[in-house]
Design goal:
The structure is a single chain. This protein is an alpha+beta fold. Helix content is 23%, strand content 42%. The chain has 4 helices and 10 strands. The strands form 3 sheets. It has a 4-stranded mixed β-sheet with strand order 7-4-9-8, with helices on both faces. A 3-stranded antiparallel β-sheet has the order 1-2-3, with no helix packed on it. Helix 2 packs across helix 3. This is GDP-mannose pyrophosphatase.
């Protein structure tokens, strides 16, 4: 029997309180009545900013990645430039800012390719991802909390690393797959698509 679709919240909130808050997140504790009628609890992490990610692709089909240590996972991560955009800032403007801050690159063209809900069982964080091309040099200005490395990798090689699991960052993985789809459905400039699919000799 098919489960009836409902858009109403099946939990009844009986009490709520903020248990932790800083400039980036708020953790809310809720006392609830569960869908089965029993008492329960629920925790929600609310984010102050929206996440953005930018996959910058140059005219030769190479992608610029940034590498940094991700403390929650205690692991190094290669990923596309990403950051937070306040709710009162234009998403595309925020994406351009993050791209230049982390890589020193500016983009003549940005294409919005993905909108995602992240960890939607415990947080309200959303993300919007872009493909950037028509790159030129700007001025990098990483935040004081960031120690970033840069890596220029051909899109074909990046696709391999996504498939094998070497690249694990969720926004990067989703955007690379989406961009691969755009190439094969002729939604990117032909010359750029050809460069992205043609692995240069020696790489």
């Amino acid at each position: 029997m098919a489960v009836e679709e409902t858009k109403a919240d099946p939990f009844q909130i009986t009490a709520r309180r903020i248990v932790y808050e800083n400039a980036w997140i708020t953790v809310e504790h809720q006392d609830v009545v569960r869908p089965d009628g029993k008492p329960g609890i629920y925790g929600i992490v609310r984010f102050a900013n929206r996440a953005v990610g930018v996959l910058p692709i140059d005219d030769q089909g190479y992608v610029w990645l940034v590498g940094q240590y991700r403390r929650p996972l205690a692991a190094w991560s290669w990923e596309m430039p990403e950051g937070g955009v306040p709710h009162d800032e234009d998403l595309m403007a925020g994406a351009r800012r993050e791209l230049e801050e982390e890589t020193g690159l500016r983009a003549a063209h940005l294409i919005r390719v993905l909108d995602l809900d992240l960890s939607n069982s415990v947080s309200d964080e959303t993300a919007t991802c872009f493909v950037a091309y028509g790159l030129s040099q700007g001025l990098a200005a990483p935040e004081g909390t960031e120690i970033l490395s840069q890596r220029r990798i051909h899109f074909s090689k990046l696709m391999e690393e996504v498939v094998t699991g070497e690249i694990r960052d969720s926004l990067t993985v989703a955007t690379v797959y989406r961009t691969y789809h755009l190439v094969h459905t002729n939604q990117l400039p032909v010359v750029l698509s050809q460069a992205m699919l043609a692995m240069p000799e020696g790489d």
